[in-house]
Specification:
By secondary structure, the chain is an alpha/beta fold. The protein has 2 domains: 2-98 and 182-193, Nucleotidyltransferase, domain 5 (2-Layer Sandwich); 107-177, ATPase, nucleotide binding domain (Nucleotidyltransferase, domain 5, 2-Layer Sandwich), CATH 3.30.420.40. 26% of the residues lie in helices and 30% in strands. It is built from 5 helices and 11 strands. It has helices at residues 39-54, 73-90, 99-105, 143-150, 184-193; strands at residues 2-7, 12-21, 24-34, 63-69, 94-98, 112-120, 123-130, 133-134, 139-142, 158-160, 175-177.
């Protein structure tokens, strides 16, 4: 299967073309740069250049995989919009990929993994794996709760993601992978394995957005104060 992967969820802007056969992802073309903002201006060019490096046309792509979160609100929207637009234009399936699952898949063959994204405001987005199986769904945890979980993982664990360094002292000597984003090869493998009917390209948010709708329309009078 020939895939294009799109990732703008965290600190990278990535577009790549991969051939996946029997679970092995072979890189054909890739563009990936650290990026905090500006994804919308770069992602289309990255995808074009990755396809050119791979020596393929967009019509040669069988499937598109895109990260759906958790991650940056704006970054997620950019990647999802581009992937869905490309999928519609090519009439190709688009599958959504969990950022935390992709980070865990970037940790190699480790049996015990904690995927941790620094969510600021005293929280991390987290998911934990033992023996290759997830222990519950992804969640937004306080630093205290996440430290308690990582403290039980043991010395053979791998902590991966932008939040990994926050918990180095909590676990008994784990290996740290403070990645800016998932490995492209991991994204390609997950995209190939995903069921298009289940892995919908919809944003995954683990906490309420910072912005809230206004309580009144512009120019609308304020409600009178209640008199006790």
């Amino acid at each position: 299967m020939r895939l294009m992967i799109i990732d703008t969820a965290l600190g990278l802007c990535t577009a790549g073309v991969f051939e996946v056969v029997d679970g092995e992802a072979r890189r054909l073309g890739l563009r990936s740069e650290p990026m905090v903002k500006g994804h919308s201006e770069r992602i289309a060019g990255f995808a074009r250049d990755a396809a050119a490096e791979a020596g393929v046309d967009f019509a040669d792509i069988d499937r598109i995989g895109v990260t759906v979160g958790p991650g940056s609100f704006t970054g997620l929207r950019v990647g999802l919009s581009f992937a869905q637009g490309l999928g519609a234009a090519l009439d190709r399936p688009v599958v959504g990929l969990s950022t935390l699952d992709a980070l865990a898949a970037s940790a190699g063959e480790a049996a015990t993994v904690a995927a941790l994204i620094d969510a600021r405001r005293g929280q991390v987005y987290a998911r934990f794996w033992r023996d290759g199986r997830a222990e519950g769904p992804a969640a937004a945890l306080t630093l205290e709760d996440a430290a308690a979980r990582t403290g039980t993982l043991g010395a053979d664990a791998v902590l991966v993601g932008s939040g990994a360094g926050l918990f180095a002292a909590a676990a008994a000597g784990p290996r740290l992978l403070a990645l800016d984003g998932p490995a492209p090869e991991a994204l390609a493998r997950l995209a190939a394995d995903a069921d298009p009917g289940l892995a919908r390209p919809r944003p995954l948010y683990l906490r309420a957005p910072d912005a809230v709708p206004p309580t009144r329309l512009p120019g609308q009078a304020r409600a009178p104060a209640k008199v006790p």
